[in-house]
Amino acid sequence: MDFDFSEDQRLLKDSVDRLIADRYAFESRKHFIKEPNGWSAEMWAQYAELGLLGLPFSEDLGGFGGGMIETGQVMEAFGRGLVLEPYLATVVLGGGLLRHAGSAEQQSELIPQIIAGDLKLAFAHIERHSRWTLNDVAVTARKDGSGYLINGEKGVVLHGDCAGKLLVTARTGGAQRDAGGIGLFLVEANDPGVSRKGYPTQDGLRAAEIAFANARGVPLGDPDDALGVIERVVDEAIAALCAEAVGGMGEMLAVTTDYMKQRKQFGRAIGEFQVLQHRAVDMFVSLEQAKSMAMYATMMAASDNAAERRQALSAAKVQIGKSGKHIGEEAVQLHGGIAMTMEYKVGHYFKRMTMIEQMFGSTDHHLAVLTDGGGLF
Amino acid sequence: MDLSFTPEEVAFRQDLRTFFTTAIPQSIRTKVLEGQHLTKEEIITAQRILNANGLAVPNWPVEWGGKDWTSVQIYIYQDEMQLNGVPSPLAFNTSMVGPVIAQFGTDAQKKRYLPAAANLDVWWCQGFSEPGAGSDLASLRTKAERVGDTWVINGQKTWTTLAQHADWIFVLCRTDPTAKKQEGISFILADMNTPGITRRPIQTIDGGHEVNEIFFDNVVVPAENLVGELHKGWDCAKFLLGNERTGIARVGTSKARLKRIRELASLEFSGGSALINDRKFREKLAACEVELKALEMTQLRIVADEKNHAKNKPNPASSILKLKGSTIQQTTTELMMELVGPYVMPFAASDEGDGRNEIGYGPDYAAGTGPTYFNWRKISIYGGSNEIQRNIVAKAILGF
Hints:
Largest sheet of chain B: 4 strands, mixed
CATH topology of the largest domain in chain B: Butyryl-CoA Dehydrogenase, subunit A, domain 3
Structural class of chain B: alpha+beta
Structural class of chain A: alpha+beta
Order of helices and strands of chain B: HHHHHHEEEEEEEEHHEEHHHH
CATH topology of the largest domain in chain A: Butyryl-CoA Dehydrogenase, subunit A, domain 3
Oligomer: heterodimer
Radius of gyration of chain A: 21 Å
CATH class of the largest domain in chain A: Mainly Alpha
Strand content of chain B: 5-15%
Number of domains of chain A: 3
Helix content of chain A: 40-55%
Number of domains of chain B: 3
Helix content of chain B: 40-55%
Order of helices and strands of chain A: HHHHHHEEEEEEEHEEHHHH
CATH architecture of the largest domain in chain B: Up-down Bundle
Strand order of the largest sheet of chain B: 1-4-5-8
Strand content of chain A: 15-25%
C-alpha cells in the first residue's frame, strides 16, 4: 500500500497548485465570472498549454495518459480556487464518454480538439422528473437514414450554454425507466433542432435548459445499450467532484481558522474560546474523512467491476456530501455575518459545496443506492 | 393542568384567522408562504390594514394601541399570522423601537414617534452591530458627543436590515468613553436624511440586498433624541433584544413551510414515483415535525409561565426558542432544497434581489430554494448568535 504520488504526479500537482495560487485569487475570479461565457478564456488557454485538457487521454492522441489520480489532483486544486471553467463538463464527462464509448474515428477527430482547447462539450442527461436516476430517460432518438433524430428536453446541463457539441442521452427503445434502449448521441450545439437557454447556477457556474426538436444525433457507442458506459463515466465524474470538494473544504477550514485567530470579541481572539476550538476540530475531522473517501473514490472509479465501483462511489459521495455540508455550514457560522456576504470568500465555497451535494445524486440518494446494493462490508 | 386552549382562546383564534384571510390581500400572503421577499409597498400595505383594525401593536401599552392581551393571546396572534402568511408588522417599529420608547421615552417622544411607528408612516432601522462589535455588542465604538443642544454622532454600523427603506434609525452610541463598556452607552434616534449619514448596500450570498452598512460622519441630531437616561442605553438594548428572541422561534412559519413541503412532495418525482412515497424523505419530514411540535409546546410553556416573571425580565428559557427555532427553520430550507433535487441549481435573481426565477427553469417553487437555504443561515447568527444563546443558558444552569 502506497499513498505517495509518483514523481510525474508530484510535478503535475506542483504546477497545477502554483497555477491556481498565482492566477486564481478570489479577486481574479470575480473578474472571470463577468466574462461573456461566465469563465476565463485565458485560463482555458492556460490549461491547454499546461496539458491539463489532455490529461486523461492516451498519448497517441496527444494526451498525457493520466488516470483518475491525475484528474483528482487537478480537481482538488480547482476546488481550492473555485474554478469556473468547463473542465468537468468537457474533459471529465465529455472526454470520459468519448474515451469509453467513442469509435476510433470519433476519438481521433474530437479528442485533439479538446486537448487544443478548441472544443467544449456538455453532458445533457437530467430531465425534469428524472432527478438522479440514470436510467430515467424520456428524450427519444429515432433512426433516420444514417443518423438519429433527437426529441425532448434536458435540464440543468452543466456548461451546456458554451459547449460546441452535446452528448445527449436518449431512448431508442423500451419504457422510460428501462435499463436497455438508452443511447448516447453527439449533437451539434448549433443544429437547427437545438434551442438552449443558458443561466448561472447558484455557485456561479453555468448551465442550460436544452430542447431538442428533430435535432440530428450521431450515436456514440451502442445506441441501444449505453447505460453501462454512462454509469461508468458518471462514477468518474463523482470521483472528480469528490476531489474538487476536498480542495474547497480544505480552503474553507483554512480561511475559518485564520479568521478565528484574527477576529477579536470580548477582548480576545475568538479562536481562544474552547467551544469554538472544538468546532474547528470537528471540521478538521470531517475534512480528513472526506479526503480519505475522495482517495478511495479515485482508486475505485478505475475499477472494471461495475457493482463494486457503484457501491464505492456512492459511499464516497455520501461522505463528501456530509463533510461538505458540515464544513460549509460551520465555516459560515463561525465567521458570523461576514460569511453571509457576496464580497467575502467563504460563502462562495459554501454554495459550491451545496451544489456538489446535489450533483449526480444527493447524500440521501447515494445512501439509498448503497443500502439497496447491500452495503460495503 | 389542561394543555388545551380555552373555548375563548379557540374563538379568539378563529376570529383572527377570519380577519387575516379576508382582510390581507391573497397576493401578499401567497408570497410570504412561498418564501418570497415582499416589496416595501406590500409591507406597508399589510401593516396599515392591521393597524387600522387595531392589530399592528397588540404588545404595546393600551394607551398607544396595545391590547392588554394575555401572553397566550399574543402567541395565538403571532401563530395565526405566520400560518396564514400575514407579514409580521415591521419588527424594528413594533417590537424594537416602539416598546423601548413606550417603556423608556418621554411623553413628547411617545406622542411623536409611537403612532407613526404603529402605522408604518415612519420606517425604522436598527443601528446596533458594528464591524468590531457583533456577538460582543457592548464593545461598540460609534460615539455621540454632546455639543450644545445636540448630539454629534461619528462611527459605523453594519448589518442594518432594510435600511434602504428606512426613514429613521435608532442608534446605540458610546456617550461616556471612560465608563465600563456597558455603562457608557446611550440610545439615540436619528433621521436618516440627516447630513452625514450614508448607506452602503451589502449583497448577501443569496444575491439579495437586505442589509447595509451605515456611516455616521459628524451627524448632528437634537439633544431631545436621546431615549431613556444618559449612559443607560444598554438597558434599552437588553429590553429590546429580549423581545427579539421570543419572536425568533417562528413556530407558525415553520408549520406553514412543512405543510407546503408535504404538498409539493407529491409533485416531485424520484425513480418514477412521487417523492412523498419515498420513505426516507417522509421520515425526515416527520422528524422535523416532531422537533417543531416539541418547540411549540416549549414555547407555550414559556408563554404560560410569563405571568410568573417580572415584566421586562425575559425568561432565560427564551434562548431555547432561539436555538431550536433557528435550526428548525433552517431544516425546512434543507428539505425544500432536497425536494427539488437538481433544480436547486439554476440561479436567476430578479432586480428585486429576491431570488425569484422569472424565466422558468424547472418548477417556479424551485427558484427560491437555494437562495433561502443560503440566506437563512443568518438566523443562527443574528439577534444574538446561537453561541451567545448557549452562553446565556450556561450561565443560568451552571452559574458561571
